[in-house]
Amino acid sequence: MEPLGQIAGVASGVISSISWLSGALLGMIIGQYFDGSLVPVTLGLTIVCALTLAVLRVVPAYSAPLD
User: Fold this and answer.
1) 3, 64 in Cβ contact below 8 A?
2) 63 assigned to some structural domain
3) Is residue 44, in this structure, part of any structural domain at all?
4) 67 inside domain
5) Does the chain have fewer CB atoms within 10 Å around its N or its C terminus?
6) Residues 34 and 41 sit within 8 Å (Cβ to Cβ)
7) Average pLDDT of 40-57?
8) In a domain? residue 66
9) What angle do CA 33, 36, 40 make, to 5 degrees?
10) pLDDT in tens, 1-28
11) How far apart are CA 42 and CA 35, in angstroms?
């Protein structure tokens, strides 16, 4: 948040909203496959974790200079 300066509060709200919305959408999609067993939930969690790891490997981490 430090590089965003005076709009850090707004940026935090936007980031939180995007995080909440994506989690709700992924949860809704995984929930559609729920059949009473843990297989769809486990498979959905595994797929989401694999996608997260793939994104973390592809997208470089942003580091702002501490001037």
Assistant:
1) yes
2) no
3) yes
4) no
5) C
6) yes
7) 92
8) no
9) 40
10) 677 778 888 989 999 999 999 999 999 9
11) 12
Residue 57 φ then ψ, to 5°: -80, -30
Domains in the chain, number: 1
pTM flag (> 0.90): no
First-residue to last-residue Cα distance in the chain: 15
- 58, 55, 56, 49: which is closest to 26 by C-alpha? 49
DSSP H or E run through 54:
helix 39-58
User: What CA–CA distances, in Å, run from 61 to 12, 46, 47, 57?
Assistant: 18, 23, 22, 9
At 28, the amino acid letter reads M
Residue 12 · residue 1 · CB < 8 Å: yes
Range of the domain at 28: 2-58
- Name the DSSP class of 60: P
